[in-house]
Sequence to fold (216 residues):
Amino acid sequence: MTAGSPTRGRAARLALAGLGVAGVLLARRASLRWGATDSELATGLPGDDLVPDPRLVATRAITVRAAPADVWPWVVQLGQGRAGFYSYDALENLVGCDIHSSDRIVPAWQGLAVGDEVRLHPDGGLRVEVVEPGRALVLRADDPTGKSPVEFSWAFVLCEGPGGTTRLVVRERYGYAAPWSALLVEPIEWVSLLMTQRMLRGIKQRAEREAGGATD
Fold:
């Protein structure tokens, strides 16, 4: 069998394809746990019960050099028409979200109650399911018709760390109600990674600045 035989060529292509698939799977795994520790991945968080049988879970986290009481005001005022999402406003506004991230804490935006809406877009948002001031805010896609192809919950959890720091953990849980739901969620999740990284860093920078902590 010569070095240039069709069999060897097919084997090389299959090996390259296998490496490509493995690379994609590793990148996907890393994207779903950006910044999170093994312990945080394994720990149950407020709101996990809202999507009890998820097909996809993303848990991402960051350390903030400020106490939970100093981080919470930035989290609770999230939303379109409120403080925005401290992410890439220009990208969000390309699809008509009309987001304008705030660099200050606004007293009028500090009150949220279960049942309130946190808008993602002028035409829709998520229902507030859990509010534990200083600790947890959990939002869920509210579909009274029961016809949505995706169940979704979005939790923001603040855990007190050593030296007056905070671990801010964000978890997304997706349940698939239709056979083709993954085709909708998987592309969105890559975008979510980009936007969530920026959001976590945005909260960190703002909270550390206000608390007088050093920023990275």
About this structure: Confidence is low (pLDDT under 50) at residues 13-26. The longest strand covers residues 150-160. Strands lie at 56-64, 117-121, 124-132, 136-140, 150-160, 166-176.
